[in-house]
Amino acid sequence: MNNKALQGQTLLLLGASGGIGSALAKKVTAQGAELIIAGRNLRSLQQLAIQLPTKTQCIEADLSEQSGRELLMLALPNQIDGVIFAAGTNDFTLFEQQDPRSIRQLFEVNTLLPMLLTRDLLTRLKAKARLIYVGSTLGAIGYPGYAAYGATKAALKHFVQALRREMADSCLQFCYIAPRSTQTSMNSQAAQELNRVLGSKTDQPDWVAAQILQQLMAKRMHDQNLGMPERLFVRLNAWFPKILDLALHKQLSVIKQYLRRTPAEPHSGVPNSSEHPAITPKPNTHTPNIQTPNTQTANAMASTSLEAITINALGVKGVCK
Ligand SMILES: NC(=O)c1ccc[n+]([C@@H]2O[C@H](COP(=O)([O-])OP(=O)(O)OC[C@H]3O[C@@H](n4cnc5c(N)ncnc54)[C@H](OP(=O)(O)O)[C@@H]3O)[C@@H](O)[C@H]2O)c1
Question: For the whole model, what pTM was predicted?
Fold first, then answer.
């Protein structure tokens, strides 16, 4: 009897060994889907696979490399029902100190990997296949310390939107989901401390995975920014970026303290597994706000209206024109 929502489907899940990916692997297989999972560490993929209730194929491949993507394509069946792009990397650092190789690597993994693989996979997708791309709130809101990471996610978001429109005459569905800060190993100790100092909200990977599963099972998928008030901040930033410029300026000295604490890896060529900040409201309010550790400033910003935030933000002193 076929009583599970994803029974009979074969899905390709990238980033399955990660915090969000492994939580998602458990959820989609509980719904009956069979998985193909790929990553650079076969052992961690196999450790996950033995916990899953359905057939899972593990492929060891560095997907930022052309050779790795070719290996994956060779191992894939002719027709798959969907792809979830949840692989990613991060590098929380001052841009002036960022290793150029780290910038390249961020684009390789977060942007080029999903773009190039999507192109290769188009001929392997069933007519009604679904493609889900995991982005980030930071793809919509530029945040200090994440100039390169945010740019990779902004590019990904744009790619998904354009491709969806280009392929609107097909039955394929495309969706970009942007989590806020999530409790995975992508976030270092320093990032977690910064979140604590800023009183920022973070999500559990299991909750993020549940939102992705919901999209996968919905009749029509749609792009989604996860978490309030981040969803509101994304709109605020699109309409009134100056407000966020000024509000983030108030937080800058604190953020920089944590940026400077991040141990530099100048010659590794591989980005640090690193921080993902949360942009949060005042505790116990739903006020769209960018929090500050300074109590006085925080109180000044604890208003419940958009106009008051605007006034607060515009009231900041010492902003370079
Ligand atoms: N954690 C957050 O705060 C947060 C917030 C918003 C968005 N996101 C996004 O959510 C997605 C998942 O993040 P996460 O927190 O689950 O990260 P994570 O725990 O660090 O996992 C990252 C995953 O990406 C895979 N990966 C990285 N480079 C790869 C490569 N070259 N080839 C193949 N696989 C590669 C890793 O596999 P191997 O290392 O085994 O290869 C791992 O499975 C990412 O796109 C991230 O940007 C995360």
Answer: 0.86
Query: Which is nearest to 41 in space by CA: 75, 8, 24, 18?
Result: 18
Burial of 160 (0-12, 13-18, 19+ CB in 10 A): buried
Determine the atom of ligand 1 nearest the C-alpha atom of 17: 43
Out of 14, 20, 134, mutate this one to test ligand 1's pocket (max ligand atoms within 8 Å of CB): namely: 20
Whole-Å CA distances, 283 to 131, 246, 288:
35, 21, 11
Ligand 1 atom 5 nearest Cα: 181
**Which residues does ligand 1 sit against, CB inside 6 Å?**
15-21, 39-41, 44, 62-64, 86-89, 109, 134, 136, 179, 181-182, 184-187, 273, 276
Q: How far is the CA of 273 from the centre of ligand 1 (A)?
A: 9
Question: Under the phi-then-psi rule, with left for phi > 0, alpha for psi from -120 to 50, and beta for the rest, what region is 145?
Answer: left
Q: What is the pLDDT along the chain (321 residues), one digit of tens a residue?
A: 568 999 999 999 999 999 999 999 999 999 999 999 999 999 999 999 999 999 999 999 999 999 999 999 999 999 999 999 999 999 988 899 999 999 999 999 999 999 999 999 999 999 999 999 999 999 999 999 999 999 999 999 999 999 999 999 999 999 999 999 999 999 877 777 888 898 888 999 999 999 999 999 999 999 999 999 999 999 999 999 999 999 999 999 999 998 876 554 433 333 344 435 654 433 222 222 334 333 333 333 332 223 233 334 444 333 332
Q: Which domains does the chain have, with CATH numbers?
A: 10-312 (3.40.50.720)
